[in-house]
Amino acid sequence: MDTSPLNEALASKSYVKIADICDNLILQGAAEGIEFQDEWPYAIHLLGHIYNNDINSARFLWKRMPAAIKEARPEVVAVWRIGQKLWTRDYAGVHEAIREFSWSPEVQPIVASFAELYKKRMFELLLAAYSTISTQDSAHFLGMNENDATNYVLQQGWVLDSASQTLTVKKQAVVKEQKLDPSKLQRLTEYVFHLEH
Known about the structure:
Elements: H1 4-11, H2 18-32, H3 42-51, H4 55-64, H5 67-72, H6 74-87, H7 91-99, H8 108-129, E1 132-134, H9 135-142, H10 146-155, E2 159-161, E3 166-168, H11 182-196
């Protein structure tokens, strides 16, 4: 089985593409009758789905995975632990699951990239859901200690009330690109032309 597209995606850090590439390679291998399960990079495949926030696909991959693989590869189980925490919306648990395993050199860059992506997702969640939040809760969601979380959000423009240890969320201005429909422009032109003549 030619895994060069997967190797290229990993080398270029195009982690968003990993899940689709792995899914296609599995389908290709199954169509050609190739036995691949023993050497298949299940940890990377699971992480690909998790990276894309496609927890359902990660769950179904986990269910299809042979029991022998689950028992023989602790890293695959550790990746699935991240998926379980995401499934149950255990935000702090996701960060714990990432930190508590010693990842292999092949998987570590993807995990590190996912950890950063997940921190950004949690920040955007806090931004959308709160107007004020305690430093303790922000640390819980961002997977950091209170000082680091406070410094992180202060850099994003939030304001700290030292007395109550409460952060005031600074909503970022949403820039919406206005799309002009050509038919509307045509109607407007005709209307203005009609008024002038």
